[in-house]
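To make this tangible, this section ends with a sequence with its structure tokens:
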Amino acid sequence: MESLKSYTTHRPWTMPKHPLSYYQEWNEVVFLHYKVNEQLLRTFVPNQLELDQFNGECWVSIVAFNMEQIHPRLLPSIDSVSNFHELNIRTYVKSNGKPGVYFLSIEASKSMSCLLAQKISKLPYKVAKMRRKNNCFESDNKSTKNFFSIQYSIGEEVHQKNNLEYWLTERYALFQDYKKDIYGFEVHHKAWELHRLKIQRLIVDYPLYNSFFSSPPYAMHYTNGIAVLSWKKTKEEYV
């Protein structure tokens, strides 16, 4: 954990001074990025948060990955709750001028992991049936009728991120609403090592958000994974 703290030149701001709380790994990550309508997106995001834009356009991303080895700083990981598949739909926001992401949806493959995450972080995890094998990832949430399925191949490495790729991936804060408040979560990791992604099959059926996914993704990426440090949530204050 401590050695990871020395990689800071790529960060847009300094790391928090208070002690870190968790270690985790985000492995075999698939990113699908979509341009979306600003007015429609605004209806899904709390008013306290500013919609972040790239060249005047708003974005939503689907992120599918393996969450592994998540554990508190002073405790070991436990396979039954520390390792699971996750699929989230996120958009890009600012809170008090600081850029980050906001989850429109966040699902995981283990019910106990979801319960613990809900209790500790207050993030709106929901459980879904997920499976992953041979460059395929599938998620099926019967309660919400959310369904996602992708088959893909991994392309060449991105040796130099362009401005959009950096903007979409190098995010070091999460802002999420809970009841009437907004909470911020800080994270730290090395810069993403991205690869191109090629899609053989893709089905995205999220009834609440299908209007965002009516066209193919504008950009797609894959990464083998990254180690992540994170801190406890803090309440955002607004004037």
Remarks:
- The chain has one domain: 3-11+24-235.
- Helices lie at 38-42, 79-82, 111-121, 163-169.
